[in-house]
Structure to design on (252 residues):
C-alpha cells in the first residue's frame, strides 16, 4: 500500500474537512430549526437544507478534493481504484473531524433546549421498522446517491451538473427515507452528532452497513456496465487522464 501523502493530498483532506463542515452545519442546523418550529413541512425543510448544502459544498470544493464528504462515497471510490487506501483513510478521518466541528459550532450557537429536542440531529429508526429493513432502505438510498455521483461526477459525459445532481438526489432520498430511517446515506452524518451530543443508540450500525453496501454496489455496477474506457482509472489510486480535473475521483 502506498503511504506517500503529498502537500496536494493534505489540501484535499482540508477541503474534505471544510466541505463536510459546510454540509453538516447547514443540514443539521436545518434539522434543529425544523424541530423547533414543528409543522408538517419539517421533512421538506430538512431535505432542502441537506440537498442544497451538499450541492453548494461540491460546487465550491469538488475540484479540490473530489467533494466526497461521505465515507460511503470514499469507500466506493477506493474499491473502484479512484483513490489510494491511505488517502481514503485520511478523507474519512477528515469527514468525521469536519462533522464534529460543525456539531460543536451548532451547540455553541443554538440554545441547548433547541438542539437537545432533536438530539442534535442524531438519526434513529422508527420502532415499526426492524434493523434489516432499515439497512435495506439506507442501502437503496445510498445506491441512488452513489449512482448519481458516478453518473454526474466520475463519468465525464455528466460533467457540469455534479453538484446539482448529487444534491438533488440527497433531497429526494430524504423525502422518502427521512420519516423512516432518517435518510442518512452517510456514516459520518450519523456518528458525529452522536459523538458531540452523547445521544447514542443501537441504530448506528445501520448507518455504516447500509450506506457502505449500497455505495459499493452502485460504484461497482456503474464501473462495470456504464463507464467508458477513457474514464476508467489507469492504476490503483489514480484517476484516469482527462483534459480537466474531475469531481469525486480525488480532485486535481
Amino acid at each position: 500500500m502506498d503511504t506517500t501523502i503529498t502537500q496536494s493530498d493534505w489540501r484535499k483532506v482540508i477541503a474534505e474537512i471544510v466541505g463536510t463542515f459546510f454540509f453538516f452545519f447547514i443540514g443539521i442546523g436545518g434539522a434543529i430549526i425544523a424541530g423547533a418550529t414543528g409543522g408538517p413541512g419539517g421533512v421538506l425543510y430538512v431535505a432542502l437544507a441537506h440537498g442544497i448544502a451538499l450541492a453548494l459544498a461540491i460546487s465550491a470544493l469538488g475540484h479540490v478534493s473530489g467533494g466526497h464528504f461521505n465515507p460511503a462515497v470514499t469507500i466506493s471510490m477506493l474499491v473502484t481504484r479512484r483513490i489510494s487506501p491511505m488517502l481514503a483513510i485520511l478523507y474519512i478521518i477528515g469527514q468525521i473531524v469536519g462533522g464534529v466541528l460543525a456539531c460543536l459550532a451548532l451547540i455553541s450557537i443554538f440554545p441547548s433546549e433547541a438542539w437537545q429536542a432533536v438530539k442534535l440531529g442524531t438519526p434513529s429508526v422508527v420502532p415499526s421498522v426492524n434493523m434489516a429493513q432499515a439497512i435495506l432502505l439506507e442501502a437503496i438510498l445510498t445506491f441512488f446517491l452513489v449512482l448519481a455521483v458516478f453518473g454526474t461526477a466520475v463519468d465525464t459525459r455528466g460533467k457540469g451538473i455534479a453538484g446539482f445532481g448529487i444534491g438533488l438526489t440527497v433531497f429526494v432520498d430524504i423525502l422518502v427515507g427521512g420519516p423512516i430511517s432518517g435518510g442518512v446515506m452517510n456514516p459520518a452524518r450519523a456518528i458525529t452528532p452522536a459523538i458531540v451530543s452523547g445521544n447514542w443508540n443501537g441504530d448506528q450500525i445501520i448507518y455504516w452497513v447500509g450506506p457502505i453496501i449500497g455505495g459499493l454496489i452502485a460504484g461497482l455496477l456503474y464501473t462495470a456496465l456504464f463507464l467508458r474506457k477513457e474514464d476508467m482509472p489507469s492504476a490503483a489510486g489514480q484517476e484516469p487522464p482527462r483534459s480537466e480535473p474531475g469531481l469525486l475521483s480525488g480532485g486535481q
Notes: Confidence is low (pLDDT under 50) at residues 240-249.
